[in-house]
Specification:
Strand content of chain A: 15-25%
Largest interface: A-B, 35 and 38 residues
Radius of gyration of chain B: 19 Å
Oligomer: heterodimer
Radius of gyration of chain A: 22 Å
Number of strands of chain B: 7
Structural class of chain A: alpha+beta
Number of helices of chain A: 12
Number of helices of chain B: 11
Helix content of chain A: 25-40%
Distance between the termini of chain A: 38 Å
Strand order of the largest sheet of chain A: 3-2-6-7-8-9-1-10
Structural class of chain B: alpha/beta
Distance between the termini of chain B: 51 Å
Strand order of the largest sheet of chain B: 2-1-3-5-7
Helix content of chain B: 25-40%
């Protein structure tokens, strides 16, 4: 795949040009943090962002997705699966490696054995411009879970190689299309650019700490079922769900039928849900499979670090650190894993944690 | 059913500020549609001609603060198919019940001087459910307009109104707010039932807990957080009970040591 460079100060011009063909979304400041938002005002785009409150999953499997519309008066049925492919195509600009890995995980969940047409349509309609993290963010531990780089999942990928330039990898024909819309902004790479790229990567490797030993984590969890840590965490956890909402790999949803006030239309809608909530495993007859709140927090760990390996061949964590930042009780997924591994996995000495 | 074949509704106010009833009036965008679903036969705040009942649905605002209100709420209950309590006063005692921890006689004297014989105030101000069976509760100060519309719709089509058994944090995160607790603010979001779309935190103000405790509330964890942020036990207790004094009667609350 070809490589290019682009001047950092040309990025606003690039985005403006792309806005003629796409809806462009990227990280913008919001109070003390950043969020992904539509770039109506390109000057708000801040590619030096640390992390965002919500991962870009909100665009691929949105909190409220209408699955179908039923007309009650004329008895009509409208499939909404292709609604978003008919929309203007969308670019997510400046997505970090952890979040691209999160999207690749969601691809497995929604595009695996059972194809989810709604996700597929949102995904098809989305072009991703990735952004390398030369320095780690405040709460992230992506290197520890092997998610601080990507082989695929991006259409373009930017790496900051100097104060003035990004190095650009083209990942797909969708990425190529971006280049063709603004060819004057991209320069072909020289040997000097390649050297700068290598220097940037080395800097990244030096900057990102490896803080966790995760081998055998699934077997650790087999052994740790009765560990006292679950009761300890249960006392701290309020089952508020902040971790799951902000998690780039948490994908659970509930489906409900919303009737409009004139009682003429029903929308079958799915909205985000999480295993931390009381009603999640509540079934007919008022039986609750996980009625005890601490069992729900424990379940979340077992799903992420055991079941996900079984189902999708990898853990459901990208080390983005959002759950650590979002938890009002100060629970750190990293510290929990570290403590479990330290006790159960006879791990080689690891730093930090 | 009323003459129109629609369920009849009575809307009643007890002790409170009447803000929840006002919020129904403020539903301009929905009022016509609501009137297409139900027939409001009694509503002293908004109508001059009011039916003495019975009603298919009674919507009750306010707490029960006086002897005479006990009789009145019982009568409404007897004459209603379903009874819906709206707002923190009706569901949890609300701000009026803040005086439950104070000396009633001393309070009466401060406000009315020596002439207090005409008052029939109760020792403790309680939510509606303390005296009669309540079929649905829409908490909050005031009750959330959208939640009210959803509840009316649900009842009109024979569904149980949705109860969000999760905390304000869910809605707060969906609205992409950075956590106020992590900015050292005394936010009640994690222990408070959702349904307000995280209105206060989204505008930078802490959740005051006006919607009452979430299902299976973990008071202990919130207590620990606020204490570590520097709140005194007395302050924490006030925060826990401010809008919802009736929660002091919950076994989970009684287990707390302040």
């Amino acid at each position: 795949m070809p490589t290019y460079t682009i001047r950092k100060d040309e990025i606003p011009k690039l985005v403006e040009t792309l806005k003629e063909k796409y809806e462009v979304y990227g990280p913008v400041p919001r109070r003390t943090s950043h969020v992904f938002d539509k770039l109506d005002d390109v000057s708000k785009l801040d590619l030096d962002y640390d992390s965002t409150i919500m991962s870009p999953k909100k665009y691929l499997t949105p909190n409220r997705q209408v699955l179908m519309r039923v007309g009650l008066k004329e008895t009509t049925l409208e499939d909404t699966a292709n609604e978003s492919t008919m929309d203007t195509p969308r670019i997510l600009f400046g997505v970090h490696a952890c979040d691209i890995n999160g999207i690749l995980f969601l691809d497995k969940v929604f595009g695996g054995k059972y194809q989810d047409v709604y996700y597929a349509s949102n995904r098809e309609n989305t072009t991703i411009v990735g952004l390398n993290c030369i320095s780690p963010c405040k709460y992230g531990f992506c290197r520890s879970v092997d998610k601080n780089y990507v082989f695929e999942g991006y259409d373009l990928f930017l790496t900051e190689v100097s104060d003035t330039h990004y190095y650009v990898h083209v990942g797909t024909p969708k990425g190529d299309r971006i280049i063709t819309y603004a060819p004057e902004l991209f320069s072909e790479t020289s040997i000097g650019d390649n050297d700068l790229f290598k220097t940037a990567l080395r800097k990244k490797h030096e900057n990102h700490p490896d803080e966790l030993y995760l081998d055998y984590i699934h077997e650790t969890l087999d052994m740790a079922w009765d560990d006292e840590i679950w009761d300890e965490l249960g006392e701290l956890c309020m089952n508020c769900g902040s971790c799951a909402m902000t998690c780039p790999t948490c994908y659970c949803f509930d489906v409900e039928d919303d009737v409009d006030l004139s009682l003429s239309t029903v929308e079958r809608t799915r909205k985000w849900d999480t295993c931390l909530f009381h009603d999640f495993a509540l079934v007919a007859g008022n039986h609750n499979f996980r009625g005890h709140p601490p069992s729900r927090l424990k379940y979340r760990f077992y799903h992420k670090f055991r079941a996900a390996i079984h189902d999708h061949g990898e853990i459901a964590c990208t080390g983005c650190g959002r759950c650590i930042e979002a938890c009002p009780a100060g629970i750190s997924i990293k510290d929990v894993l570290h403590r479990l591994q330290d006790y159960w996995a006879s791990s080689p000495t690891v730093t930090g944690g | 059913m009323g003459k129109s074949g629609k369920p009849t509704v009575g809307i009643f106010g007890f002790t409170g500020c009447a803000g929840c009833q006002l919020n129904i009036l403020n539903l301009e965008d929905y009022l016509l549609d609501i009137l297409g679903l139900v027939d409001i036969t009694t509503w002293v705040m908004a109508k001059s001609e009011n039916s003495p009942g019975p009603w298919d649905i009674a919507i009750v605002e306010g707490s029960i603060a006086k002897e005479s209100e006990i009789e009145r709420i019982k009568k409404i209950r007897e004459n209603s198919g379903l009874l819906v309590a709206i707002g923190a006063c009706a569901t949890h005692g609300g701000l009026p019940a803040m005086r439950n921890v104070l000396d009633v006689e001393a309070m009466q004297e401060i406000v009315y001087g020596e002439k207090t014989e005409h008052l029939d105030v109760l020792e403790k101000i309680m939510p509606v459910s303390h005296y009669v069976k309540v079929d649905a509760e829409l908490p909050g100060c005031p009750m959330d307009k959208n939640e009210f519309v959803e509840a009316v719709k649900a009842i009109a089509i024979g569904k149980t109104p949705f109860v969000p058994n999760y905390s304000v944090c869910y809605e707060c995160k969906i609205r992409e707010n950075a956590c106020l607790i992590n900015e050292d603010k005394f936010c009640m979001g994690p222990v408070t039932q959702a349904g307000c779309d995280a209105l206060c935190p989204t505008n930078g103000a802490v959740c005051e807990g006006c919607r009452g405790p979430v299902a299976q509330v973990n008071w202990g964890a919130e207590f620990k957080i606020l204490k570590e942020l520097g709140a005194t036990p007395e302050e924490i207790k006030r925060r826990f009970l401010k809008y919802c004094p009736s929660t002091a009667e919950m076994p989970a609350f009684k287990e707390l040591t302040f």
